[in-house]
Amino acid sequence: MRAFVGIELSPTVRDALAAAGHDIRTQAPGWAGEKWVAPGNLHVTLAFFGSIESRAVELLLGELDERVGVVSEFELPLVGIIAVPNRDRVDMLWATLDDPVGLAASLAAAVNEAAAACGLAQESRRYVPHITLARTRRAHRHEEGLVEVLDAASASLPTTVSVVSATLFSSVLSRSGPRYEVVRSWPLRS
C-alpha cells in the first residue's frame, strides 16, 4: 500500500483552507485549472513512505505505537499561504506553519525513527511543516498580484492548527485523484 503519516486537520481548519482556495481561484484565474487538493485530503505530512509491503505495515504500526503516544499535544501557528519554491518557478501553493520550538519536527523525527526500525526509507530533507493546497500542472513564474491574493486569502485563516494525534494513511490512487484512508491514529498525550 502507498502510505504516509500525517496530522489530520480539524473541520474548521479544512473548511477555512477550502474557502481560501476558492478565493485564490476567483482572484487569480491562472490557478483555477491547477490540481487542488480535495478539502477532505488536506493534512500536514510527517513522513511519506511510498509503497510498502503489508508485513512492513504491521511492523510500522507496532513501532508507531511505541513512539508516537509519548508526544504531547501542541499548537502550530498557521502563518499564511505562499507560492513555492520561488518567484521564478512556482510548483505549489502551501499553507505554512511555524514550528517555533520544534515540536512538529520532533513528532516527524519519532515517525522517521519508527520507519527506520522497520527498514523503511526516511526523508533526508529538513522537516518543514506545511499543508499543500495546490500543485501546478506545469511550473510557471509567479504571476502579477499573486502575493496580494495569497495575503488576502490568508487573512481569513485560523491562527493555529491543533495537533492532537498522528495518523497512518493509505493513499488510494484513482482517475479522479488520490483518496486518503485512515489506517490507524495515535492520540497524543493531553
Describe the structure.
The chain is α+β, with helices and mostly antiparallel strands. It is 29% helix and 38% strand. The chain is built from four helices and nine strands. The protein has a five-stranded antiparallel sheet with strand order 2-6-5-4-7. β4 and β5 form a beta hairpin. α1 runs antiparallel to α4 and α2 packs across α3. The longest helix is centred in the first third of the chain and has 17 residues. The chain is globular. The mean pLDDT is 93.
Distance N terminus to C terminus?
A: 31 Å
- List segments where confidence is low: pLDDT < 50 over at least 5 consecutive residues: none
- Number of distinct helices: 4
Mean pLDDT: 93
Helical content stands at: 25-40%
Biggest sheet details? 5 strands, antiparallel
String of helices and strands: EHEEHEEHEHEEE
Shape: globular
Category by helix and strand content? alpha+beta
What percentage of amino acids are in beta strands?
35-45%
Radius of gyration: 17 Å
Number of DSSP-assigned strands:
9
Give the strand order of the largest sheet, numbering strands 1, 2, ... along the chain: 2-6-5-4-7
